[in-house]
Write a structure and sequence with these properties.
Blueprint (H helix, E strand, L loop, with lengths): L19 H32 L4 H25 L11 H33 L1
Helix pairs in contact: 1-2, 2-3
Length: 125
């Protein structure tokens, strides 16, 4: 089944416009990713200014931030390969790439979540 021409992020031969779902997903993922990176940066900068050194929880949060940025990149790739496209409209070749990126992204998501929980645990105790 041929891919609909309205999905520019998936179909290279599509006309030069974005469908609203792909554009919305792209903007949302990028915005949340940038806000998360800014939050981690402000936290680390503030801690360095206040105490002059970083504690364990800060280093763990830095690792969580790196994992979050990696996951953001993977999520943007998922949009590129058809996150918002109905499964019935995705060609088989695109579906395989999408699934590979999707399962790889889960590793980064869970790793980032692990680092965040470890940072919170070390902060509380």
């Amino acid at each position: 089944m041929a891919l609909s021409t309205r999905y520019i992020l998936v179909d290279r031969d599509a006309p030069a416009f974005w469908d609203p779902a792909s554009a919305s997903a792209f903007i949302c993922i990028l915005t949340v990713g940038i806000l998360g990176a800014i939050a981690v940066t402000i936290r680390l900068y503030g801690k360095m200014k206040l105490t002059g050194r970083l504690a364990w929880d800060d280093m763990l949060m830095l690792l969580a931030g790196i994992s979050s940025i990696s996951y953001t990149v993977m999520a943007l790739l998922q949009v590129r390969y058809g996150l918002v496209v109905p499964m019935q409209e995705r060609p088989y070749e695109v579906q395989l790439r999408y699934q590979t990126i999707n399962y790889t992204a889960r590793v980064f998501y869970l790793t980032g979540l692990m680092w965040f929980k470890a940072s919170f645990k070390s902060l509380v105790t």
